[in-house]
Each structure stands twice: as structure tokens, then as C-alpha cells.
């Protein structure tokens, strides 16, 4: 029988960190939902690619002046074990994720949290349960990604060593702190190898903590050493991340990942229009 992600992370902490620090670090672990390719025996909880099912009045998302976005994924909230999460994810309805992926301009336009004019290049739409929907054809010039059914499972997720919650827990955190040591960081990276589609929990960044990127953008892109950024970053949680995926023919830059984050209050109020996007690649 395979070990749970919680067991693995607790073991890694005990092996690489002093006891007192390991206890405090494991207190920062959070539940998340891993989305993986579904087999015939699995409950389907979402899908990558294909075509979205949208309410009749809802327009296909467009970035004004650039063109229509590509459909990345949908999640059936009723099929997720959302009661295992520590965020107020809807228990029914559908979340649809769209992104301007460069099909129309050979990747010239970049969607980034520090460029407000680009924010229209990534969207989340929520369709409540019971609302009539129809599968929508892709706009001209947009090639839909191959459809891949996804199932979900609960897993325990770890914060990036420079995540704001880690910085707060161990403040003041010196450059040689054990949590940021190469041995522990490498062990965490090895543990999380593989395709990482996720709902909730801690984000798995490719380059650095995504919460800080989003927080800086939300504050109007002040200097990176602005003390407000760390405080603002504590107010954002991961809604979803979608990795590059061979089965869906999705490649975000050089094996990159798309991230959508949201403030807990906006999530509780179903204000998905206030979610913010960032992406990272190797």
C-alpha cells in the first residue's frame, strides 16, 4: 500500500529538519485536490481541453484587441471531495478556465500579474448548477486542446520554502535557515515530481512563490522590497493550477504551469471575476 502524501511530508521534515522546526513546518501543510487522468473506473471530476459548456447568454471570453482565449479546463465541483479542503470551494456547479495561449499571435502577448492591461487574457467563469448550458464551438483561429478526463484525490500539500506563511512562521528567517536548505528543498522537489494539476492547497511553483507575484500585481507593482507585498500575499489562496500535459497537448512555455489565485472572501462570495492569474515555466 502506498504511503499518503501527509506521511511522506512528515517523514521528509523529520529527516531534514531539527525536531522543533519540523513540528512547526508540518503545521503549515494544507489539503489539496490532485487532478489526474481518469481511468474507466474513476469518477470524472473535470477535464482538460475539449470545448466548454456555457450558458446561452455567456460570450466566449475575449481579450479586447487580442482575440478569443483558449479553453483550458473545466471542473465539476459536485464531483470533488471539496469538504476535505480548507477553502470555500462551491459544492456544485462548474468552473471553467480560459487562457490566451498564443495561438493567435505566436506567443507575443504575455499575461502577467504586473501588467493590468493583460489581465483579460486569463479568466475563470462559474456556472451554477441547474443553469442550462450548451457545448460551444471554438472561435475562428482557436484549435481546441484534446479532451482528457480528470479524476481527483485528496493529498497533502507543502508550502514553498519562501512562501509568505513560512516566512511569517520562522521570522526573522536567515539565509541559512534549515527550511530553505538545499537538502530539504531538493527532497520536496523530488517528492512533487510529475504532472501537477491541483485544486486548492499550496501551489507548486516552478520558479518561486506565486502568491508574491499576484500580491505585487494586486498592489500596483511596487518595488519588490515593499513590505506590503508579503502581507498582501498572505491574503491569497490557490484556486487551481494546470500543468503542461502531454495527453492534452498542452505546453505552457518550457514545461510551465498556469495558476489562478483568489482571496478567500471573493471565493466565498463566488466572485471568480476577481481571481488573479500568473504562470511560470522552467
UniProtKB/TrEMBL annotation:
Name of the molecule in the record = DUF1963 domain-containing protein
Q: Which domain of life is it from?
A: Bacteria
Species of the source: Streptomyces caniferus
One Pfam assignment? DUF1963
Amino acid at each position: 500500500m502506498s504511503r499518503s502524501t501527509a506521511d511522506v511530508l512528515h517523514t521528509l521534515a523529520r529527516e531534514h529538519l531539527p525536531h522543533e522546526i519540523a513540528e512547526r513546518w508540518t503545521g503549515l501543510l494544507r489539503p489539496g485536490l490532485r487532478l489526474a487522468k481518469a481511468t474507466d473506473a474513476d469518477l470524472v471530476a473535470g477535464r482538460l481541453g475539449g470545448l466548454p459548456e456555457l450558458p446561452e447568454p455567456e460570450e466566449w471570453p475575449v481579450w479586447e484587441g487580442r482575440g478569443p482565449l483558449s479553453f483550458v479546463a473545466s471542473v465539476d465541483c459536485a464531483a470533488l471531495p471539496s469538504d476535505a479542503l480548507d477553502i470555500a470551494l462551491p459544492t456544485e456547479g462548474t468552473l471553467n478556465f480560459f487562457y490566451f495561449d498564443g495561438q493567435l499571435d505566436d506567443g507575443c502577448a504575455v499575461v502577467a500579474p504586473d501588467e493590468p492591461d493583460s489581465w483579460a487574457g486569463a479568466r475563470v467563469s462559474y456556472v451554477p448548477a441547474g443553469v442550462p448550458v450548451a457545448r460551444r464551438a471554438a472561435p475562428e483561429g482557436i484549435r481546441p486542446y484534446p479532451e482528457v478526463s480528470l479524476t481527483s484525490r485528496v493529498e497533502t500539500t507543502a508550502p514553498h520554502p519562501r512562501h509568505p506563511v513560512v516566512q511569517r512562521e520562522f521570522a526573522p528567517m536567515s539565509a541559512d535557515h534549515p527550511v530553505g536548505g538545499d537538502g530539504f528543498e531538493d527532497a520536496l522537489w523530488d517528492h512533487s515530481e510529475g504532472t501537477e494539476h491541483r485544486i486548492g492547497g499550496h501551489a507548486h511553483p516552478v520558479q518561486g512563490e506565486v502568491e508574491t507575484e499576484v500580491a505585487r500585481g494586486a498592489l500596483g507593482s511596487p518595488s519588490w522590497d515593499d513590505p506590503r507585498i508579503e502581507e498582501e500575499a498572505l491574503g491569497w489562496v490557490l484556486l487551481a493550477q494546470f500543468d503542461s500535459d502531454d495527453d492534452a497537448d498542452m505546453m505552457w512555455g518550457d514545461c510551465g504551469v498556469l495558476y489562478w489565485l483568489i482571496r478567500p472572501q471573493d471565493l466565498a462570495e463566488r466572485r471568480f471575476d476577481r481571481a488573479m492569474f500568473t504562470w511560470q515555466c522552467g
